[in-house]
Amino acid sequence: MTHTKTPEIKKDAMYQLLRDGKIKEFNYHRDKGKVPDLVNCDFRAIDLQGLNAEGLDLSGCYFRNSDLRGIDFTKAKMVGASIHDAKVSGAYFPTDFSSDELTMSIIRGTRLRSGL
To answer: Which of 24, 50, 84, 96 is deepest in the core (most CB within 10 A)?
Structure first.
């Protein structure tokens, strides 16, 4: 599976909850066992504060200008994601991303790569 595709706006009901700002409802359904299809999704300019990202596959996602403040992504898959100009204060990212890697993604929009 490639994570360099153009970001998509999918019809997945769980993804649509996030696009509509219904973070609590998304978390509720997820905790009840619903599995969202979020790979390569477009999250441009969406406020995702409060998202429970544990175990989510966010590979290839596009988070330009999104509000990711306070989200714990340490147990999420984010290879190939871009966090260009995102608000990341208080966010935690997987430990295999260096601070330089994260900075380049925030400033230049580069895709996150693991194992560097």
So the answer is: 84
